[in-house]
Amino acid sequence: MKINNRLKNVANFVLKDSNVIDVGCDHALLCIYLASNYPNMRLIASDVREGPLKQAKANIEKYGLEDRITLKLGDGIATIDNDTNVIVISGMGGITIADIITKNKEKLDKIDQIVVSPNNDFYAVRSEITKLGFIIDREEVIKERDKFYLIISFVKGKKKYKKRELYFGSKCILYDKTLREYYKGQFLLLFNKYSRLPDKRIFAKHKIKVKIDMLADDIDMLDKKQAKEEKKARKEAKRLARIEKRQAKKEKKKLKKSKYEMHPLE
Q1: Are 116 and 89 in contact (CB under 8 A)?
Q2: Is 170:161 a contact under the CB 8 Å cutoff?
Q3: Quick one: DSSP state of residue 75?
Q4: What is the pLDDT along the chain (266 residues), one digit of tens a residue?
Q5: Does residue 27 contact residue 46 with C-beta atoms inside 8 Å?
Q6: Distance CA 137, CA 114 (A)
Q7: Is the CB of residue 26 less than 8 Å from the CB of residue 51?
């Protein structure tokens, strides 16, 4: 089945051969995609609303996956069972996601991975979940229909993160052109917010200025990384061109020799 790029990337983050609960499953498209692609995966599609679950039931039956996906009506991860080891929450606000995880933290003992894709408040997600005995394992920013979406994978572990990492991403984040574009957009938003604040709001302006400086450093690092990669690519292209040129010369000599042997000079 076809799903949007955001959900497909979320699916790629999930541990394979795991038992998954998709909290706020909506129409269960993510669960159906996972069940269709990973035959050993067992899934729970959970939602707090009956309407989406009715549509989810119809979708699951359409693909004949009733024996692989269990529907549960309930709040957050309260519907989790003893076999579940992966939690997925996508398409909600960051504070809502953090609240869902923290208010049922007693359910996290058997959880190996938490995969989230918040719409906003990334700091809240990172800071709250890393307080619960999880570390950031992988992060990626993707772009779809001119909007940026963050996907984060947390696994069991303990680590103290810097403010910069909690605001803008850990060292595990995928550094690419999409991230660079996202950072530059965030930089402009913060700069405009800083500019609009009156000078008497000293503390508020200072907090924003700290974030601006953090982002400026990250953007500078990405620019240097991109320049280094472009230089490496140009070097590799020149190397391949030299090899191709030498090969062409060899072929030319070989052809010339072949013609001479067929028609030697008398």
Answers
A1: yes
A2: yes
A3: S
A4: 778 889 999 999 999 989 999 999 989 999 999 999 999 999 999 999 999 999 999 999 999 999 999 999 988 888 888 899 999 999 999 999 999 999 988 889 999 999 999 988 898 999 999 999 999 999 998 888 888 889 999 999 999 998 888 888 877 677 777 888 888 888 888 888 888 888 888 888 888 888 888 878 777 777 777 777 778 888 888 888 888 888 888 887 777 777 666 665 55
A5: no
A6: 10
A7: no
